[in-house]
Amino acid sequence: MISDRLLALLAERAGFRVTRWSMVRIAVFAVAALVLASLVLPSRPGDVSAAPYNAGLATKDVRNVALPLGDTRGFKPTSRPSTYQVAWIGGSETLAVGAKTRAFIPGLVTKRIKTVDGRRVSTDIYYLNAIRLADQLAALSTALASKPDLVVVSLNPVWVMNDLAVQQWDYLDGELAQHSAWPPSRWPVAASLVSPGDVGWKLLSGVSPDGVGDRFDWGVDLARRTEALTFLDPVPGAQPPPATGLAALGQRRPVDFFYGQFQPQRRPTSLTEQQLGILERQAVSRSDVNEIVLEQMLAMVRRAGVDAYFYIAPVNPEVYAEPAAQDYLADLRADLARVSAGRTDQRIRLDPQGLQARVPPTEYRDIVHVLDGRPEAAVLAQDICDLLTANDRRPGCEDS
Question: What are the backbone dihedrals phi and psi of residue 90, each rounded to the nearest 5 degrees, phi first?
């Protein structure tokens, strides 16, 4: 074996002998090398300018702080100490998708509230497409570490209690590992989702933040510099073969993957019917994992001593008119009421009834993606203003 020959060579030339302390020496030298690399290498803190929708929708006061998909740092919160800082966590249901009314709904809310206690409101949106509850737990961990004044969490009714849709973006597991060491109540979810590799990489990132911690940016830069290097002759016009098996599965929508695991009572023929079928699956979920994750989120904001508002986004009124949808959402409200019982107070609010009955009917693209977010933003702004006022804050909500 090559390793045996290498050890023999080291023993012959340098007097190296394998002892019980060999691994300790290797670890010490490895840590020293990582620390040295962190001192020498420049910091690569990540860039959110290319985060989804920032180019057209971000403003001075509102921005998506998600780093590129695959970057294990997850998010890059902004630091604006003179402002009232809001951390808003959600997925595509927080986006108005109309051609002429496209907007971050959190941005519309920020524009309505404007100031709190005389400070300008600044909103970091922890936005990921198809975000699931465990992903929101990771985002909440990062958000609370940035010491926000207010946390807002959007609970997508399509996924929130669906035990086949606990997590979508497992590259965030390093954030879960970092923030799950204490208290012990966080261990069950961490043990279910976090791998030893996630823990190891996060520990190494702590030893060498500018080296291991920033490895995503270094990797992207190295790939860009070396992508033209090859020992093969280029073949003009070559096309990759069509994806099959797992590769094809990976290219399909999460909804398509979901239907490989669950068949509803009636076969869906449209995206809206597919999503209605997901509500059906949510109603028959039997695992407690989603409930445990939500309980942890409520406990985290309580320990952090921060004002928090959890809300259930409304669904398309045309879908809600279906008796089946009303039954599924009634089950969801009952589950949320049970999970949140005793875990909310004057500073932490979760209304199991959601926004459905209070947002005026408007047009949707499908079950949860609204075209014009202004009616929903008006209700959200009023709810947040009520929460802040009840806690002796002075929000600028005159126009909300």
Answer: -175, 180
